[in-house]
Amino acid sequence: MNIPIRISLTSICPVHIHAVSKVTTWQWSILKSAFKALMILLLFLLLTIPSTAAGEIKSLFRIGTGGSTGVYYPIGKLIAEGLTKPVEEKNIIDTSVKGVPGIIGVAQNSAGSIENVRDVVSGQIEAGLVQADVAAWAFRAEHAFAGNPSGRALRAVASLYPELFQLVTRRDANIRSVPDIRGKRISIDELGSGTLSVVRIVLASYGLSENDFSPVYLKPVFTHDKIAKNELQGFAMMAGAPMKAVTQLSDTGLFLVPIDLKKASEISVRFPYLVPGKIPSGIYSGIPETPTLQVYALLVVSAESSEDLIYKVTTALWSERTLSLLQQGHPMGKIISPETALTGLSIPLHAGAERFYREKGLLLKGSRSP
Q1: Going from the N-terminus, what domains does the chain have, and what CATH number goes with each?
Q2: Residue 31 above 80 pLDDT?
């Protein structure tokens, strides 16, 4: 019997925040990379052993996500589950799509969009969740990818949901606008994250830089205790809402710093995939509607992936089973739909995904992906 297995790196080896604070950033990066490589190797050896019943060899389909308290990670886990073919019960006829035969989906923690792009095009992972603006930069060899043409191999499978720029601060820090962060201690996410790239864009639009405050480069999962103890006054994250990193701090007393419509529109002129958005009232307890920036989250793969495989992956992604997992598993999963799968795309579709959308009539004959 082939048993589908979902394993996350954080569930194998939970890391306590206080332990992380005792190592330097570069030491933590090395430890994390080494652990990730070891777990992937062990999983591959375990899961590619032929089944005694069917003799089918399973291979991993690794999806780069983000930190465990963001939205990429839980959404990535649900997609990974949807791509993994479940144990089939005998004597039950069911023609619905249930996973992709021969693969096991694995959600893999990462620094975020930029790292996911690099790992996808280098073949270290099979897919990744990536901000549309970051995907466009990679494809055009711009900004963080200037001089690196490898991003031309990046291809889209689908647009999933809008991500919102969330600058979350302690209410008693009296940070009511972006310039108020001067002199404060704020976490702006890891190097290699899409959030950090957006933070720098926002700072520049207000005439600020990282020299104007005390930046800390941590994922939100590592900021919880520091914000609760007022060792940090806030953190930034580009993610869907609600985000666990915010909801678990609701008792602290929080404030979402707005990016007003005029400023967001000015940013959008220079960075077309960053557009004005809103964090709705009630998403977070006690926090009113807040204007901000948004960008779409894409599921991306490499152009080198086979057309047949990505066609099956796209089919499984939009199957009733995966959609049900998404809708029941996370609030952002409720808005993920094939009807908006082509909204906000900033790079070309993979040939396998394009074939799926044409067959379903979602991509009109003669039209082209970005």
Answers
A1: 9-159+298-359 (3.40.190.10), 164-295 (3.40.190.10)
A2: no
